[in-house]
Description:
With 95 residues, this protein is an alpha+beta fold. The chain has a single domain (1-95), classed as Immunoglobulin-like, CATH 2.60.40. The chain contains two helices and four strands, in the order E-E-E-E-H-H. The protein has helices at residues 49-54, 83-86; strands spanning 5-8, 13-16, 32-36, 43-46. It has a four-stranded antiparallel beta sheet, with no helix packed on it. A hairpin with a 4-residue loop joins strand 1 (5-8) and strand 2. It starts with a strand and ends in a 9-residue tail after the last helix. The relative contact order is 0.15.
Amino acid sequence: MESVNIVNLNQVIGTTTNTDGEFEIRAKANDTLHLSYLGYKSIKVKVSNDWVKYGTSTTIELTELALALEEVNVNKLKLTGYLEVDIKQVPIQKM
Length: 95
């Protein structure tokens, strides 16, 4: 995936994936990489000794988030930008 955010939490440096989903980041063994992408579950991956020693290519997969929204009602309000005034326009629904 393109544009996945990767942060090395130990060294506080980051990067993003290229159009082929590839990335390079400075890391040592046992550093933790945090990968995140909008609409997907963020994950943390610990850098292994083999990754550092052999520079092997590894595939990391993110899991898509399945979010379902309840019904949403949008009412037309003329907002002023002043919270004290605007809050009085919002109807109170008793459940």
